[in-house]
Design goal:
Number of strands: 4
Shape: globular
Radius of gyration: 20 Å
Mean pLDDT: 81
Oligomer: single chain
Low-confidence stretches: none
Number of helices: 7
Distance between the termini: 43 Å
Order of helices and strands: HHHHHHHEEEE
Strand content: 5-15%
């Protein structure tokens, strides 16, 4: 529903942009529709809607979605836990924004769970935008990381997940999630 509303706003703004009106006040939506990359390519409507939803949902459900995806991926790929990936001292583990994370030029096969992609990984500038940057950094980033650390510690040591509909398709807006919202049985490990 929200996606359809935002698409309607984009269509309406696109129509107004064709009319030259000196009293028309341009806003963020107009600017997002006009912005071009270094090759002259504009954002697609899906990308603009994703950005608008990110502003609306920032901080809301982001920790829960991160935890959900980690549990799904670890359930589907238990060998990752047995390999024991080492996170070097001083490193910070963060969730990456969709626009960067789903870019196959930055991450080949972005829709596949490939923990090995982080072995010998050397990040490029602009490839990590997890909680914002500089003065735009999320004020709740440390709390979110603490919540996730505590959740993963207790969940991975004490529980296992059994999805009701494994392999459900993924929808990407407003936030990437299995279409059934990850219906699952959570069972205590004896």
């Amino acid at each position: 529903m929200l996606i359809k509303i935002l698409q309607g706003v984009l269509d309406e703004r696109r129509g107004k942009s064709q009319i030259i009106d000196p009293n028309y006040e341009r806003g963020m939506v107009d600017l997002l529709m006009e912005v071009e990359d270094e090759y002259g390519k504009k954002l697609e409507d899906e990308d603009i809607i994703d950005l608008l939803l990110m502003f609306l949902f920032a901080g809301h459900e982001s920790t829960a979605h991160t935890a959900m995806w980690a549990v799904i991926y670890l359930h589907d790929h238990p060998e990752v836990l047995h390999k024991g990936y080492l996170i070097p001292r001083g490193w910070k583990v963060m969730v990456w924004n969709r626009g960067v994370h789903m870019d196959p030029e930055v991450y080949p096969n972005p829709k596949e769970f490939l923990p090995a992609r982080w072995e010998n990984y050397e990040p490029k500038a602009g490839s990590l935008l997890a909680f914002g940057v500089g003065s735009w950094i999320c004020p709740g980033d440390d709390l979110a990381k603490l919540e996730l650390s505590i959740f993963f510690h207790y969940f991975l040591l004490n529980y296992k997940l059994e999805q009701i509909n494994p392999g459900d398709p993924v929808v990407y807006l407003p936030l990437p999630r299995p279409i059934d919202n990850c219906l699952a049985k959570v069972m205590k490990i004896e």
